[in-house]
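--- STAGE predict ---
source: upstream dedup step, 1 unique chain passed
mode: sequence only
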Amino acid sequence: FGPKAVVSLTATATLTVADHAGRVLTCNAAAGKFTLPSITSGSSAAVAGANDYNVASNLGCTYTFWVETAATDMDIKTDGTDRFFGAVYTGINDSAAGKTFISSSGSNDVITMNGSTKGGLAGSWVQITAIASAAYYVTGQLLGSSTLVTPFADA
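--- STAGE serialize ---
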């Protein structure tokens, strides 16, 4: 909580656990490329054994992206080895129904928002949590328009 609880992303950025995890990340770069940290899941040291708190691990770290400036070609991506698991719902503001898009588990490593068919209008949000080695869990609600298509892709 407090003044560091919300971080504005105004340009392409490589995120860090220290500066971005557990915070609301307001996306103000319509074509920004935001790269998540590599997942480190080790918790066992040769001396201390299992669940050693001195071994680096970012499991459980959550990144919440809130689109403040409508996207034109905004990407949220992994390091290329970590993958997305989960789904996002994309809603539209007309008589057509929205759609839920499921990540191709074990394959997708990019979420692209374009402000229309892939969502990303102002007010869209995505929450991503490191849940296992090479696995980020994704949930969110995107706001889009026109004929909706999946925002998930492979780099």
